[in-house]
Amino acid sequence: MNPELSEPQETPDPGAPAVGAVDGGLDGALEALLLLAVEPMSVTDLAQAVGVPETEVATALAGLAAFYDETGRGFELRELGGGWRYYTRDEYADLVAAYVLEGQQAKLSAAALETLAVIAYRQPISRGRVSAIRGVNVDGVIRTLLARGLIEEAGHDGESGAVVFATTSYFLERMGLRSLDELPPLAPHLPAVEELEAELGQLAEERREPVEAQGGQAAAGTPSDTGPTDD
User: Fold this and answer.
1) Which helix (H) or strand (E) holds 146?
2) For residues 153 and 12, what is the distance between their CA atoms, to the nearest angstrom?
3) Rounded to two decimals, what is the model's pTM?
4) Average pLDDT of the chain?
5) How far apart are the C-alpha atoms of 8 and 222, rounded to whole Å?
6) d(CA 20, CA 17)
7) What CATH number does residue 156 fall under?
8) 185 compared with 154, residue with greater pLDDT
9) 139 and 57, same structural domain?
């Protein structure tokens, strides 16, 4: 056949997903997307993502669901809420619930509870101020409370620029409170925080006075003296 008379070949769209190049073909591509889904994904969204007609995607989804049922997997592919998503099977509900609840009921350490109390009553408060009140480094405890969803970043301190922390709505839920106004009085749970901070400020002032005195002596010395340096 004369090449000049042959029909022109279609040029692949470089921006289109190459489903055929993915290991597992269409089924594998759909599985990869559905594993990431936090909400049911519609056939339309899936078809657009893989660049395949909706009818083919719908057929593939039904085939995957049947395959999981036939092979007795611990999960299943369901069409709910206008889309498709993976779910654990009903027969494993008790096992999954026990595992999840065990993680939720893990108790906070005494250090974490004390730090949480300081933040709850003094929020928003910076990590440095929490450390000063408790007298210990609280970096690890702060990370734990953030990971548990009990506290969150709430902006920056106006003077120091440090990140400040506050409790979350999940904290209120776990404590059975409707608002922070329902927190019990401060005295039974924490030392007099204002007095403690005043004492810390006084100690800092006492440490600053000798340094300033040394600086005055240095200023009266040789011209090469430049004053005190940071400890």
Assistant:
1) helix 139-147
2) 48
3) 0.41
4) 76
5) 91
6) 9
7) 1.10.10.10
8) 154
9) no
